[in-house]
Design brief:
Blueprint: E1 14-18, H1 19-27, E2 42-46, H2 52-63, E3 82-85, H3 92-101, E4 117-120, H4 131-147, E5 151-154, H5 158-167, H6 171-192, H7 198-204, H8 209-219, H9 224-234, H10 241-246, E6 250-253, E7 256-259, H11 265-290, H12 295-302, H13 330-342, E8 347-350, H14 358-365, E9 370-373, H15 380-383, E10 392-394, E11 400-404, E12 407-410, H16 411-414, E13 422-427, E14 430-441, E15 444-451, E16 454-461, H17 462-468
Helix pairs in contact: 1-2, 2-11, 5-6, 6-7, 6-9, 11-12, 11-13
Bound molecules: manganese (II) ion.
Amino acid sequence: MQNKKNNSEDNENAMIIPQEVIDQALQGNEAEDYGGFEAEDTQIIHIDELKARQRLRVKEALRQRRNSESKEYNEVQRETDVIYIPDIHGDLTALRNSLTNLGLINEHDEWVGGKSVVVFSGDYIDRGEENLAVLDFVWNLQEEAELRGGKVELLLGNHEAAMLAGLLGDKFLFYTWLIQGGLNVLINVAEHYNFEEKDWLVTAKSFNQQELIANFTQYGDRIRSINALYNMFFQEGGRYHEMLNEMKVFTQVDDILYVHAGINLEWSQYLKEHGVDGLNYGWQAALSESQNNDFERFKVFNQVGAIRNGKGTGGPFWADFDGELEKLPDKDIAQIAQNLKSIGVNAIVVGHSIKKIPTMSERFNKYGIKLIAADVGMSNYYTKGESGRGGVKTDIRGNIRAQSKEGVHNIYDALKIQKGDFVQIYRNRKLEKDWQITNIDGDEVLLARQVYNGIERVKVNIDYLNKLNPKGGRKEK
Ligand SMILES: [Mn+2]
């Protein structure tokens, strides 16, 4: 389906790397903390002297702020705000609004976030219509931030994982991706290169699943955008090739672990054994080997075959706290917590699903792990015009708050319905969508709506309301 030419063109990039780091990388030893090197410890070498894997290891060693000392949440000394931006899904406007509202960029898209760290949850693509634009934006932002003293971490989501696996030859995941919005990415690629097939791809949006699969099976080789997209990510010099090398499975800042979807027992064990750096390195190695047709290894590492198919909980891109992970027995949760504590983790922040997870949060909390579901559905696809809500901020005191365009909220409040929101309820077996919340008092919520002869009021239970409004309330009727 795609061109797997192994193009290892040399580049001219040179960077200053401490000799000991290079030695260590070439020996393949576990990277240590290299924070304290002085200028005389360094020499200039050409980066192509290191093979791709070792280069990554070095980069990782230089970039990662390590903190694996186990401390209580309230005892951790934090140096800066960390902001987790949940799934963007091709909505550049939502992304810009969110970053602006959080005080991280100005109107020229320049970084004004000081030394803040921004972690993107992944799922940059699909569903929305500005997929390449979003990728370009976050990639530029990473550079912008680093130039101005901040930092941007790029996690991978299941949508990227499915796309990458699909481009590497996994047919099941290719079609999964296509159906879940990947067609929008291909349309953007066709636009980017001015391919005539664009019109056909737009028409394909009206196909049902069967037609989509049938058409792509029949014409796959002739759809130039697929090959072009493959080259963008996997070919040396491709538009997103370097970006892919920067993308991670996990990132840890201080005592908080950030991941796209979730963490199961198996992966918590891996984390304990290899640490965050080790797993990111393993992912990168598996990915680069997949390009040489070792797809099996990629599959094993990614556990892409385990997506919600009943065989397991899936890997960090797929295992969600509002799905398979809910089945975890308490002893597994205790073990996961213990494994995470061993690498200094007190909290996990996840995106991936806009559902709230109060029960799982409580269950993890019992074992000293805070579990924060940060996906507020910021993309237009979910909020229907209300884009720009999104971003969960952990400040230096460890307060975790969600920010939206309405202001700052305690995380738990922000993810729930709020006073003033419009919600839906059932009355006489009919769904009524125009009720407004006038008051919340404990479990009791007062709703009102305008009728022809005045105002109608009802009282409902908050759990009932949350269940009927899984995405939270709306700001407009
Ligand atoms: Mn996701």
